[in-house]
Amino acid sequence: MEGIFWWVIVPYLTLAIMIIGSIYRFTHNQLSWVAPSTEFFEKKWLRIGSPLFHYGLLFAFVGHVMGVLIPLEFYHMFGISDHMYHAFAIYGGGVAGLMVVVGAVILLIRKMTIDRVRVHATFADFYSVISLLIVAGIGVYITLIYNTTVVEYEYRTTIGPWFRSLFTFQPQYQLMTGVPFLFQLHIIAAFGLFASIPFTRLVHFYSVPIVYPFRAPQQYRSRSAFKRKGI
Amino acid sequence: MRVKAQVAMVMHLDKCIGCHTCSVTCKSTWTNRPGTEYMWFNNVETRPGPGYPKQWEDQDRYKGGWEYKNGKLRLKAGGPMSKLKNIFYNPNMETLDDYYEPWTYEYEHLIKSPKSEHLPVARPKSQITGKYIDKPEWGSNWDDDLAGGSEIVPMDPNVQKLQEHIAMEYEKTFMMYLPRICEHCLNPSCVASCPSGALYKRDEDGVVLVDQEECRGWRFCMNGCPYNKVYYNWNTHKAEKCNFCYPRTEAGLPTICSETCVGRIRYIGVVLYDADKVKAAASVEDPQDLYEAQLDCFLDPFDPEVIEEAAKAGINNEWIKSAQESPVYKMAMKWKIALPLHPEYRTLPMVWYVPPLSPIMNHVTNEEELKTDGYIPTVDQMRIPIEYLASLLTAGDTDVIRKVLLKLTAMRVHMRSVSVGGIDELQESKLLTEADIDVETIEEMARLLGVAKYDERFVIPTGRREMDDDLHYKQGACSIDDLAPPEGMVTYPFERRKGS
To answer: In the structure, how many helices (H) and strands (E) does chain B have?
Structure first.
């Protein structure tokens, strides 16, 4: 029963909150849909903290795709041994995770100590930075310390298949019951973070302007519809 | 030919008295909300001076506008790929300190102060943090009327480019005012800089606007605009800019800055241009050719072919008639006395300036007996160096400035002889040929510049509504409803926290 709660109900509930909440905010509150930058107030610390944090997140995302979404068989098919994979995961993942943590710490201190930034920070702002820091912190601990001192845990046979099974709506929660506690904590904290996305500044990640390089530089827009009606 | 209409402005700097009425009425109309205190969609700068924001013309730092490199026109701050790379930190973006920290005064204290030995004072208080500012150190017009003198004037990027030393002694120095609004460029670099596609140029009247719903606050427009006329609202985290008072111009009224201009320096009118020519015009190699290239984009509103093409593009007769009577067309394109501000930014700006005449450095003796030709050299002896005006208005081409000043001088000489006499016949002098102007034009110019009747200054056709889908629904609605927070709402974070 406990397995069902943590590994079926919690993931689906949090993802539902994330998806429905995001759609609601996107359709009903476009005016709040922004990347609420404070570079305008302070850019010395942001210059270090923000790229570290954001690029770290991007790398970490790629790492999670590699570790959780891509099945173990895929690696074996290409002859990538488990040892090779884990060595890469520890170094690559460690660097990415450290970038996120260091960046987030710099941004958090900046948010707390610089007057102009602090005054405009809301509870939600602190909430998202701190919870990201917790999730990333556990992740870095797992990657760099747990993996190298306790056991090199093969999450590609448990967490990976379970996570993919969420998307086929056949959740194999049994796979998760034997997973080490720190991994479980990392996952639950991450789902908690996902649920908070629609209520915080994190929504800006949906709006990465990937189409920008493909559009015409100059944009004309008509106020009225005379072109469409051919008047 | 792809005809588009543009509502444009000319400012006649000779008449600007630097009263800031335009800035104040603009501010109370558009930027009196939390998050916008530091924004001046319209500001008046004293030149020489660093301007607002500080040194906005220093494009080595802000990397605004376009550059022409290896046969290609590209954004100076870098194209889309480099923008995506810098999206987490924009190295060229200005910060609040490049403008100034806006403040108010604690007026309440004057009324509520308990009895005390000394008179209560209203201390300055930051509108960003809510804290007292003991010593405000900069403001949007800190350097008004050359305040700060030799300490502040050298910050002017145009002065730094000048070969000659600028004298700061009171008897020798010079000063002029430069009112600035968004240029509503034909080739706007803010639009091209926007990763979200929220900025756009309106098809009907060429006004450059920010879609408040689509803006995601990436802020590349701020320094992408070489005139630094796109601002970041720290409260909504979205970009805001001068919108040419479109709710007024759509109703046929001049912008609020123009309406309230005490010196009547502003002129608004429609010009027709060929959108197909814009890119080529912005891509001429020599920056000093940009002015002529821009002039080539404009179409003669009396040409039957242009009228026919305009009609095909959906421009109705009222707009074509307005283009024919447009004061902007007369001053900028026909008489060529109005010039674009910093054409070298390659944005093809659409707010044009008639450069100011200024007192002659050497006193003209026996002016009563002076032959008309005697006025020709005076143009080169004016207090405001031609090089300085050229640095502002013609990418350094002094010949263009000289010719405009000669035209204005010819107008002055002729109108002086008409009203007080004592000057020989203008027709016989070289002034007319050097200025490339005739008496008839001079008199027409004098009427528009000097008499400046309201309905000759502002020839603005109303926005077209007849094609709107749901006109009936929009009746009585406010087109900018969503922009402004509800009346009286307190949105300062520091005030919210106090629970007031």
So the answer is: 23, 15
Closest partner CB to B217 (pick from A35, A55, A208): A35
A123 touches chain B (CB under 8 A): no
Output the DSSP codes for B42-110: SEEEEESS-TTTTTTT-HHHH--SEEEETTEEEETT--HHHHHHTTT--TT---HHHH---EEE-THHH
Q: How far apart are CA B321 and CA B307, in angstroms?
A: 10
Beta-bridge partner residues of B231: B240
CATH number of B1-100+152-356+457-466: 3.30.70.20
Query: How many residues appear in chain A?
Result: 231
Residues with Cβ < 8 Å from B360, sequence gap 6 or more? B378, B381, B382, B383
pLDDT tens digits, residue range B465-482? Answer: 766 666 666 666 665 555
Q: Which chain A residues are closer than 8 Å to B61 by Cβ? A: none
Q: Taking all residues of chain B, what is their mean pLDDT, rounded to a whole number?
A: 90
Q: What is the pLDDT of residue B360?
A: 76
Q: Answer whether the bond into residue B48 is a cis peptide, omega within 30°.
A: yes
* CB-CB under 8 Å, A227 with B314: yes
In chain A, what residues touch B91 (CB-CB under 8 Å)?
Answer: 47
- Give the pLDDT confidence of B115-162 residue by residue, as tens digits: 999 999 999 999 999 999 999 999 999 999 999 888 898 899 998 888
Closest CA to B348 of B158, B157, B189: B189
Of the residues B95, B235, B495, the best mutation for testing chain A's interface (the one with the most A CB atoms within 10 Å of its CB) is B95
Q: Give me the residue spans of the domains in chain B.
A: 1-100+152-356+457-466
Contact B103, B142 (CB under 8 A): no
- A interface mutation test: which of B237, B250, B464 has the most A CBs within 10 A? B237
| Predicted confidence (pLDDT) per residue in A195-219, tens digit | 999 999 999 999 999 999 999 999 9
- Can you list the domains of chain A with their CATH numbers? 2-31+49-209 (1.20.950.20)
- Nearest C-alpha in B relative to A34: B216
Residue B481's pLDDT is 59
